[in-house]
Amino acid sequence: MAKKKESPQGTEWNYSPSPESTTHVKLEKRYALFINNEWVAPSSKAYFPTLNPANETVISEIAWANDKDVDKAVRAARKAYQEVWSKLSGAERGKYLFRIARMMQEKSRELAVIESMDCGKPIRESRDIDIPLACNHFFYYAGWADKLEYAFPTKNPKPLGVAGQIIPWNFPLLMAAWKIAPALAAGNTVVLKPAETTSLTALKLAEIIKESGLPPGVVNIVTGHGDTGAAIVNHPDIDKIAFTGSTNVGKIIQRSVAGTHKKTTLELGGKSANIIFDDAPIDQAVEGIVNGIFFNQGHVCCAGSRLFVQENVAEEVIRKLKHRMESLYVGDPLDKNTDIGAINSKEQLDTINRYIKIGIEEGAEIHQSQCAIPSQGFFCRPTLFIGVSQSHTIAQEEIFGPVLSIQTFRTVDEVIQKANNTPYGLAAGVWTDKGSRIFNLTTQLKAGVVWANTYNKFDPVSPFGGYKESGFGREGGLHGLGAYLKLS
Ligand code: NAI
Ligand code: MG
Predict the structure, then answer these.
(1) Catalytic pick from 115, 267, 398, 475?
(2) Atom of ligand 1 minimally distant from the CA of 269
(3) Helix orientation angle between 226-234 and 67-83, rounded to the nearest 10 degrees
(4) Going by CA atoms, what residue is nearest to atom 22 of ligand 1?
(5) What gap in Å lies between CA 99 and CA 81, rounded to an integer?
(6) pLDDT score of 372
(7) Quick check: 15 pLDDT over 90?
(8) Candidate list 119, 125, 196, 301, residue with the active-site label
(9) Which residues touch 44 (CB under 8 Å, ≥6 apart)?
(10) pTM for the whole structure
(11) Which domains occur in the chain, in start order?
(12) What is the mean pLDDT of residues 210-232?
């Protein structure tokens, strides 16, 4: 511990820096495309830099795939599907998935550090949440690969063929695992595109896949921007599109696949309600609020970005929340003490700051923690707004940053009506001592996931996905497996 300052209350103490080592990390200066288990230069010869958002330095250069490259990857995936993967027994497919899961575990420390460097998330999260969960998705679906007939009895499960998968930058390796593991377990082959700001852990996964001996072409990883994603979506020889990202791009994708044979699952944005009743354990609820909106800098599609507090405890909850916000560490993602890391990109930081400005202009009252933030890199202080009403932009639109809007309510019916009054429907949290109230709300809230007395808990076994503009289809669990199968 290091001394922070002397104050009338006594000495304030601060944690000494505790940076995670980066010496064990192996990164190339430049990454090509991963097609047929080979590293292939992009036919465009174009590369783009990937930055560390905490210090704005270039980490590596990433290949920018065009239509031709995507076509090459889809052909490789089709050939692998027809000649190898669809002919293997489920038990054999499962063995490969188990092997990949174990190799990811062996490299988990390196993967966690790279994730924090490329994405900006605190090492505590990448080390304790992202990477273990990504491994668990491979373990979980490995177990199903030889049991498809038991998972879907009388349904004669058959793979779809080639899956095109497009993922965002908020949980890079975890999203890759959510997409690849069930697709392979079900007998499909894959062309996956990571987000342009966070390609590195998917490329490290490609190295693991090559080393695992997975037959060439079963997993192909093509990097690039939105045009690369569009080339995957529009390729005629793809049987399934799985997308996680913004609602805008989700709508474009749905228009593109309309009238084709392509199956789709879309996991889009959210504006999820976290609801605190007066009989809730308040201190735990405050931790749940912090976890709901400040976890991963609020870069979470199911972030609890709208807080509803019952009126008679609002003063206490807000006071305790402000106090707790002061103890959050914002800074170096590689420091083990850091609670809130870097915003993933300059563009996203600009978006968040634009919403903060709108919140102030529309008359809500802002409170930000007073902590110091680094002068370099993209950082945002934890922020809350009170005096918010349903019509405020910050209560309606997805901000995707550490910004919470707070409203109060008196009755159960009122809060259900307010919570459902959004175009989204991804998740919700309910904090109360009363079991019957939890069941009442879980049936009435239009949200794919409802957490009771907790928030942001994930497990490979439980399905995840939304209602309304949050998308459709489920990932995780048996539902997530079924989304990669033809069922009769
Ligand atoms: P985005 O939707 O543009 O990016 C997600 C992925 O889609 C990336 O891999 C991107 O390259 C790809 N993509 C972009 N345009 C495409 C197209 N026309 N066809 C196919 N693929 C395409 O999201 P962006 O711009 O990075 O973030 C914007 C907002 O989206 C955020 O502020 C946030 O509100 C929301 N978002 C939601 C996420 C979620 O998990 N639901 C994840 C990321 C962003
Ligand atoms: Mg980056």
Answers:
(1) 267
(2) 41
(3) 50
(4) 226
(5) 20
(6) 87
(7) no
(8) 301
(9) 64, 65, 66, 68, 69
(10) 0.96
(11) 30-268+470-486 (3.40.605.10), 273-452 (3.40.309.10)
(12) 98
| DSSP, res 363 | T
Residues contacting ligand 1 via CB (< 6 Å): 166-170, 193, 195-196, 225-226, 229-230, 233, 244-246, 249, 252-253, 267-269, 301, 348, 351, 398, 400
Inter-residue contact 59 to 117 (CB < 8 Å): yes
Please give the span between the terminal C-alpha atoms of the chain, in angstroms, as a whole number.
Answer: 62
Percent of the chain, pLDDT > 70? 98
pLDDT tens per residue, range 384-408:
999 999 999 999 999 999 999 999 9
What pLDDT sits at residue 2? Answer: 65
Query: Which atom of ligand 1 is found nearest the CA of 351?
Result: 32
Nearest ligand to the CA of 199 is 2
Residue whose token pair is 């010869």: 45
Is residue 5 predicted with pLDDT exceeding 70? no
Per-residue pLDDT tens for 438-463? 999 999 999 999 999 999 999 999 99
Mutate to test the pocket of ligand 1, among 171, 246, 403 (most ligand atoms within 8 A of CB): 246
Nearby residues of 315 by Cβ (< 8 Å), 6 or more positions away: none
Distances from the Cα of 151 to the Cα of 143, 190, 265, 404, 487, angstroms: 11, 22, 20, 40, 11
Please provide the average confidence, as pLDDT, over all residues in the chain.
96
Cα(303)–Cα(298) distance, integer angstroms: 6
Active site residue 267: yes
The DSSP annotation for 189-221 comes to EEEEE--TT--HHHHHHHHHHHHHTPPTTSEEE
Give the distance, in angstroms, between the CA of residue 473 and the centroid of all CA atoms in the same chain.
16
Residue 301 annotated as catalytic: yes
Q: Kindly tell me the sign of the dihedral angle through the C-alpha atoms of 265, 270, 275, 281.
A: positive
CA 378 to chain centre: 19
Which residue of 203, 225, 241, 249 sits with most ligand 1 atoms within 8 Å of its CB, as the best mutation to test the pocket? 249
